[in-house]
Amino acid sequence: MRLTSLRSKIFLLVGMTLLLGAVTVMLVTQRNVTRSVIASEQQAVTNVLNLLMRDSEARWGALLSDKISTVRNGRTHLVQLGATIRSVLNMYAEQVANGQLSADQARELAKHWINTLPLSDQRFSFIFDHKLNVIASGSPDLLGMNLSGLQDFKGHPLAASAYQEARTTGQSFAIYRWPGADNKDELRYAYFSYFEPWDWIFAITDNALDISNQFERRRTEMETAVREALVSLRLADSGFAFIVENDGQLVSPLPERQAGLLSDRDSNSGQTLLDMLRTISARGEIAKFPFDSQASQNVWQISAAHFKPLGWTIVAAVPNDDLTRPATQLLKRLSIYFLGILLISLIVAWLLSARITRPLQQLTLFARKLPEQDLSAAADIPSHIAQLPNRQPDEVGRLASTFIFMDKKLRENIAHLLRETSSRERLESELNIARDIQMGLLPVPLPPDILEKIDLYATMLPAKEVGGDLYDYFLLNNGKLCFVIGDVSDKGVPAALFMAVTRTLIRACAEDETDPALLMERVNNRLSENNPNMMFVTLVLAVIDLDTGELTWANGGHPPMCILQADGELRMLEGRSGPACGVQEGIPYRHFSTVLELGETVLGYTDGVTEALNPAGQLYGEPKLFSFLAHKVPVAVQVTTQGLIDDVRRFADDTDQSDDITVIAAKRAAP
Known about the structure:
This protein has 671 residues and is an alpha+beta fold.
């Protein structure tokens, strides 16, 4: 099998296409399946973490509700006892008001009643005055004690805060620690109420240990339930979840094989997994990061969230292998299927390529013989080639039809080419003649005696073989010099003809007219008389007195001329005499005048200069033109004109010329 044959190329193309397609499908499938599996497993892990977070929040909420309910029940009981104490104190106060008891007797009876009030071992009442001294108490150890040093659970002065709040609102509640035996503080809660007649604060206090123990017991039960649930939980194939507290203790154990995972270090950061978990935000958001274990040489995908109320960090760990294993197994199965399909397809491709290439070989031999035939003679198509379009109505048949059509068209085109070549040669010859005629219309140099007074130079660069720009200079009957520059509205042969007519009209009308404005009127009227194509020409007609330097001009829609002064400054000859010539007859034009001093140069140009384009599509423009002309050392006008043309060409940088370029300059010579 040669690689130069179409049959072998088709065979290899089909084989490579199938192989590349199989590899691409397998890679894309593996990538997509891997992404899908990873996304699915990560979503499952996220869902598990969210469920664990919600479950923890629910359990914690239930604990708090139970605790709050217990505390509220205790507080309600204390408030009821407080109401009883207040009623007794009110009774003693009424007896004082009725004169039955003196105030001191009533206070002593009230104190005695408080001291002997039977409540329980842990619950008792006491009274303290505005100096925060205990004056009565169901607990003998408390009698006579000053409570100013005692603080509540939040670190505030217990008695002072209770005194102020009870005086303001009538009652107060507080949780505080009471020094107990063996330096162990006893957690208690109390209800305070203000008795205004005697400026007393009476309180009922009880031990909060039962509430705390009940809360811890419920929390232990919650941790046990969560631990049992996590032990049986599996993520993917071998992933698991666990909970670690802020101090690094495990609420639920790690699997036995991964018991040291928390202390393993990450290969990239060098941190232990426990250190990385401690950096997780405490806001409860799920954080995800990879952990490359140095000890197990395995990469884990870690998802974790912090549950602040319990100080738990709930963690889910899944090995990367669990995420990629389904895609790998699918790739192996696809490889076997694609290999079988590839072998069958190659056999079919080999047989089909033989059938396809046989007529192509016949067409190849036919095409090779075409250059050897006389294409100017009638066609001679072999029968087996002529029958291919009917025998094989497919691409091969259409290719055969194309070859037959090509043979026919080649013979027709050869004959047409011979005719066109002859016609083109004749047209090019005529254009060259027209160019020579147009260049022959340009004025001849001025006589030497005139050049002693005025240095004049002009140049024209047509964009095509012939152009539509014009310039001219000649002496008028009164001895003054007239020079002209103009731009026809079109290009090519029509513009060249219009340019020739315009130049002829200017010279003819100048025989008996020296005023540039009147001269322009006559030219405009003649051009407008019969102008079916509405062509027009922009003109500047200028007349200069060679002795005095008086310069008179008329501008018909053309860019204004400029004067280069001897000191390098640039002066524009502004003023529009009227519209372009050839548009409408009977339009009056006016002239303008100035004086061309010795050594000054007047310069005119067509818009081919300012509208020259560079490769970036930027215009040469008037600012660049004026910048080039200004502040130049006075030189011969040919040097100035040619320098301007060269600057435009450098700017264009070999970009095709889009318009004719014409420049004319006249410098009044110094004596």
